[in-house]
Amino acid sequence: MQAFLKVLRWSVGLLFIFSGLIKANDPLGLSYKMQEFFEVWGLAFLDDYSLAFALCMNTLEIVAGIALLIKFPYKQTLWLLLGLIVFFTFLTGYALFSGKIKTCGCFGDCIPLTPKVSFIKDLVLMFAIIILLFNHKKVKSNMHKALGIFLLILSTGAVGYGQYYVLQHLPFIDCLPYKRGNDIQEQMKTPAGAVPDSVSIQMSFKKNGKNVQFDINQFPTDFDSTYVYQDRKEVLIQKGNGLVAKIIDFSLFTMDNVDTTQALFNTKNPYVLIFAGNIDASVPWETLISTIQEKHQQVYLITADKANALQLKLNIPVLVGDMTMIKTAARVWPTVVIMNGSRIMEKQSYIDFLKK
Fold first, then answer.
1. Which of 32, 205, 54 is nearest to 102 (CA)?
2. Do both 278 and 326 map to the same domain?
3. Which of 76-80, 199-203, 329-333 has the lowest mean pLDDT?
4. Mean pLDDT of the chain
5. One domain, residues 6 and 114
């Protein structure tokens, strides 16, 4: 029994540490996933706190996993882990049974899991923690209290510093489709054998005080101005196989709303894209741009914050992109991306770029 409990304890502890470390590598990614849940639940007012929640959750997972391994404090740690796994099971269960969330973000973007796999994983973990909790008296801890507290404080500080570092310098491991070496055009191609979802657009109108619904391709023969529009929604007819392009939203527009994406990809010489979803006036923009222009003639600012970008009056073209795309392409704003055609040759946060 002791050997079984030891294997179970190490398995649970290491899995929590592994899960926390993957997400701590990219805490902004977890915060964006939290915002997705908040939006579905009508809690958008919590968006401003999502990064703080993500930082705390990652730290809690890792430190709790370490506490379980060193068995200090053992029983309290098991109760904490049980609370965490109940919460995680609720999230993965919601993602699975509601269908409103495609991935739960349990292992970040590095190991994307389907809601079904995530839910089963959490149920197994919950069962394992309950077994450990019922048998907690059979496990003895020889850890000195002072040493245990020191190790947990040290772990908390190390995880905190690591997350602070990646928020300033980009993730240690880039698991996103915009990582160095990737070709954006290749990432935009639909995989072979992909079967998309089959959906029907259902229109809702009111006629003579009654609600009338029909498919967008099958309007009533007597359709006229007496039909008052109410709503439209997509109804899933048949689920596809889930194979989609890794990048589906990369489009860049000039200030005159002209799509210039393909023109950039056809550029013969290397060029630089500066990604910044929102414009922070405290960034040394002039120094950054002049440093880039010492080596590269073509420099473009990619932003969703058109108004503030114009106020900066930078002597480079400003291109407008989708905010979600910019969040995925660049976790730090601004991020400097050196391109050769559609291939990403180099990618650095502006802090690292200015240090070169």
1. 32
2. yes
3. 199-203
4. 93
5. yes
3-class state of residue 283 by DSSP: coil
Tell me the C-alpha distance between 68 and 56, whole Å: 18
Q: Are 114 and 15 found together in one domain?
A: yes
Q: What is the pLDDT of residue 241?
A: 64
Supply the range of the domain harboring residue 132. Answer: 2-169
Model-level pTM? 0.86
Residue-by-residue DSSP string for 140-193: -----HHHHHHHHHHHHHHHHHHHHHHHHH--SS--STTSTT-BHHHHTSPPTT
Structure tokens at 8: 């179970």
Give me the phi and psi of 107, to 5 degrees please: -115, 30
**Between 263 and 193, the higher pLDDT residue:** 263
My answer on whether 234 and 111 are in the same domain is no
In this structure, the answer to whether residues 134 and 265 fall within a common structural domain is: no
Q: What torsion do the CA atoms of 124, 9, 5, 7 make, to the nearest 10 degrees?
A: 90
Q: CATH number of the domain that 303 lies in?
A: 3.40.30.10
Q: What is the 3-state secondary structure (H, E, C) of 183-235?
A: EHHHHCCCCCCCCCCEEEEEEEEEECCEEEEEECCCCCCCCCCCCEEEEEEEE
Do 53 and 105 meet the contact criterion of CB atoms below 8 Å apart?
no
Say if CB 167 and CB 28 are below 8 A apart. Answer: yes
Contact assessment for residue 16 and residue 159, using Cβ atoms and an 8 Å cutoff: no
Same domain, 152 and 270: no
Query: What pLDDT is attached to residue 223?
Result: 87
Peptide bond into 73 cis (omega under 30): yes
Look at residue 100 in the predicted model and tell me its pLDDT: 81
Do 233 and 131 sit in the same domain of this protein? no
Q: How far apart are CA 78 and CA 72, in angstroms?
A: 10
225 and 251 housed in the same domain: no
Pick from 214, 238, 262: which residue ends a domain? 238
Q: What integer is the mean pLDDT of 327-345?
A: 97
Residue type, 170: L
CA distance 354 to 344: 19
What's the number of domains the chain is made of? 3
